[in-house]
Amino acid sequence: SGVCNALSLEIKASPKVQAYVGEHVLLKCSFKSSSPITENLLVDWTYRPLTGGQMERVFHYQSIPYPTAAGKFKDRISWAGNVANGDASIAIQNPALSDNGTFICSVKNPPDVYHNLPQTVLLVTERGLAFQLSSAALLSLLVFLPSLLVVILLLVRMGRKFRVLKEKGKCGYKKSSIEVSDEPEHTDRAGCGGKIKEWCLNCVDTDEEDPY
């Protein structure tokens, strides 16, 4: 009879839960009972610090939740379960580093009162600096970075156009000193001017479109 009762109610809980200081954390606990759920169903959560010591009850449920009225978890534990769905979970508000410890979820649904006792180890840590950015800061960063990239690209493009204009001006000066003449051009001069013109075109050859 004892063996049958032991197998008639089964509890499952996460073996380890990671939490962060000041952030809401959920301790999940689910159960299966061979008997119909009644108002006599009991849920108890107990806690023991990682440093050791006695187990203490921090939450009790029977038809309605009864959070602990004393101790370190006073006003910080709330009911997050639904016994009709086999859920006996609780939530902890503003977890602290001192909350690290072992939690045990116990469920009794008479006549099913014998069950396993799964343990959940809660590990509370500080979040890194990268995770402490507010949503407003992240939004500002997303808006600022594209704008900065556009400005940089414009400055690079303007710099390249300025160099092209500067080189073009130098080449135009050399060309005018040779080609400007009041006399008609002769065949040999035309050939020399053509070479100078070709040299200037090569000088200003660039992928940039003509600024004019």
UniProtKB/TrEMBL annotation:
Q: Tell me the InterPro entries matching this sequence.
A: Ig-like_dom, Ig-like_dom_sf, Ig-like_fold, Ig_V-set, Myelin_P0-rel
Location of the Ig-like domain:
22-109
Its subcellular locations are:
Membrane
Tell me which positions the record assigns to the signal sequence: none
Whether Transmembrane counts among this entry's keywords is yes
Entry annotated with the keyword Membrane: yes
Q: Where are the transmembrane segments?
A: 136-156
PANTHER family the UniProt entry points to: MYELIN P0 RELATED (PTHR13869), MYELIN PROTEIN ZERO-LIKE PROTEIN 3 (PTHR13869:SF20)
> What is the protein's name according to its record?
MPZL3 protein
